[in-house]
């Protein structure tokens, strides 16, 4: 069988599995998914219109590079699964005479298809900023963005798996430089697409040629490395998830939560072990985003922005600009860390039979995810509060009340994230959008005026928690998507 036939075999198997999944989740695909996307579109669009923020060329390019780098890091786990077929039906293809180039090309095309969705979102964002989307000059940067980003994601996945297998610092450093160069080129191409003005002249040509050369170089490098590493790294990649699960033990959760039932403690221990061992690249992305938020807060406060103001009474300090900056940073950091929860639920989906065999009830599975959300999101508010206090954001008399406000925001947001953990277990992307929007909205209102959090908690939280437990019960029975 030639390379084209092998490629058609792999892509056909993936398309067949995707079509089977879509038939089994029609409600999520046809109703729930579009509903979440439309709500996000109108919510974000209204926020951008009210903000009236127009970034400079440097700020826009920096944000675009950061977004491209986050996209590469976030996709490493899924890209590695597409290359080595961990926990996927395509793993049967390893028993057939399919060459390594076919596996890599199929993964590259799959990455390119997913990146097309990001490109479409970039066009929507461009439309929200007031620029046109039907411009002929956008075709070249869009295509090159997809090309360079897919090549960077494939190389990053190869390097990630090989680093875990071999632990070669010198080679990892070279790979990191190559991936960083690819993310930088992709980010600049993304900024050419997003810019509300037409980027013309010499700089545009340099960016486009840089995308062509960078994408080609990284793709060829990935082909060479994949031929050399696949035979050894494939076995390691397939053992990776099983080894991390086998190490889980209920001791950690039992020490943290001795009053919880053994079933909840055991699941929480497994979830914490998987998270601490980086079961997905989403763990690194979430931690990096939270650290970036806290670092940005500290930099802004140290540079004198927002300006310091005096409060007439101690309780008036809650609306001081620098205090509000700390609380909004707490909201963003907590939301970034909470993104781990829906990804973990989707990661554990293929092994759901373990919970069914063990007789785990829906309330116990939901309780474990709720506690996990509270544990993983706790460092966010603590770090934001510590950075704010260290930079003098709050008067001395308001340091303790500010901590209480940050913890109240954390409790409300973690309850929302945990309550929605099983809302869309088969679609982590949409679940992430839903959880983030709901958590940031509730946390933002509470950060601005903390009594509103009590109203949200009293009138809507109990119904949400009951629904979360019911959704977990349906998910364990195999009806979670309906």
Jot down its keywords:
482 residues, 2 domains
Tell me what the structure shows.
It is a single chain. The chain has 2 domains: 3-23 and 52-242, no CATH class; 247-476, no CATH class. The protein is built from 19 helices and no strands. The protein is mostly helical and 482 residues long. The protein has helices spanning 3-24, 26-51, 57-74, 76-84, 100-128, 139-166, 169-194, 202-246, 251-256, 262-276, 281-302, 321-338, 340-347, 353-358, 362-377, 379-390, 399-419, 428-448, 451-476.
Count of extended strands: 0
Structural domain tally? 2
Q: What's the order of the H and E elements?
A: HHHHHHHHHHHHHHHHHHH
Low-confidence regions: 242-254
Mean pLDDT: 83
Major β-sheet profile: none
Distance between the termini: 41 Å
Structural class: mainly alpha
Helix content: over 70%
Discrete helix count? 19
Strand content: under 5%
- Radius of gyration, in Å, reads 23 Å
Shape: globular
Secondary structure: elements and pairs:
Layout: H1 3-24, H2 26-51, H3 57-74, H4 76-84, H5 100-128, H6 139-166, H7 169-194, H8 202-246, H9 251-256, H10 262-276, H11 281-302, H12 321-338, H13 340-347, H14 353-358, H15 362-377, H16 379-390, H17 399-419, H18 428-448, H19 451-476
């Amino acid at each position: 069988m030639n390379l084209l036939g092998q490629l058609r075999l792999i892509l056909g198997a993936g398309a067949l599995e995707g079509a089977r999944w879509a038939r089994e989740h029609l409600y999520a695909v046809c109703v729930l998914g579009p509903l979440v996307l439309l709500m996000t579109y109108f919510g974000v669009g209204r926020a951008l219109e009210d903000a009236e923020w127009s970034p400079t060329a440097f700020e826009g390019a920096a944000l675009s590079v950061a977004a491209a780098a986050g996209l590469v890091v976030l996709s490493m786990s899924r890209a590695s699964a597409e290359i080595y077929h961990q926990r996927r039906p395509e793993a049967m293809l390893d028993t057939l005479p399919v060459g390594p180039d076919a596996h890599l090309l199929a993964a590259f095309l799959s990455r390119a298809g997913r990146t097309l969705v990001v490109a479409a979102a970039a066009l929507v964002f461009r439309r929200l900023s007031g620029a046109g989307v039907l411009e002929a000059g956008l075709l070249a940067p869009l295509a090159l963005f997809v090309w360079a980003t897919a090549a960077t994601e494939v190389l990053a996945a190869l390097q990630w798996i090989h680093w875990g297998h071999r632990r070669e610092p010198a080679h990892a450093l070279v790979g990191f430089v190559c991936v960083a160069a690819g993310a930088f080129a992709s980010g600049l191409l993304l900024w050419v697409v997003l810019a509300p003005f037409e980027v013309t002249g010499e700089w545009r040509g340099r960016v486009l040629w840089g995308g062509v050369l960078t994408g080609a170089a990284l793709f060829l490098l990935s082909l060479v490395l994949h031929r050399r590493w696949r035979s050894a790294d494939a076995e390691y990649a397939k053992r990776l998830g099983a080894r991390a699960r086998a190490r889980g033990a209920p001791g950690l959760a039992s020490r943290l939560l001795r009053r919880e039932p053994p079933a909840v403690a055991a699941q929480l221990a497994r979830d914490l072990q998987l998270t601490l061992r980086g079961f997905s690249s989403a763990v690194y992305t979430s931690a990096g985003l939270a650290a970036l938020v806290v670092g940005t807060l500290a930099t802004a406060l140290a540079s004198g922005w927002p300006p310091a103001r005096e409060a007439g009474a101690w309780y008036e300090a809650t609306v001081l600009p620098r205090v509000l900056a700390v609380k909004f940073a707490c909201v963003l950091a907590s939301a970034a860390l909470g993104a781990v929860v829906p990804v973990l639920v989707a990661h554990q989906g293929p092994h759901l039979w373990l919970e069914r065999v063990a007789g785990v009830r829906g309330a116990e599975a939901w309780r474990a995810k709720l506690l996990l959300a509270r544990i993983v999101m706790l460092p966010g508010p603590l770090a934001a509060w510590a950075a704010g206090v260290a930079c003098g954001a709050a008067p001395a008399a308001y340091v303790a009340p500010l901590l209480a406000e940050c913890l109240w925001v954390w409790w409300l947001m973690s309850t929302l994230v945990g309550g929605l953990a099983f809302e869309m277990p088969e679609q982590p992307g949409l679940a992430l959008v839903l959880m983030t929007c709901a958590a940031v909205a509730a946390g933002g209102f509470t950060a601005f005026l903390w009594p509103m959090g009590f109203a949200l908690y009293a009138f809507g939280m109990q119904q949400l928690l009951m629904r979360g437990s019911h959704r977990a019960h349906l998910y364990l029975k195999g009806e979670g998507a309906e």
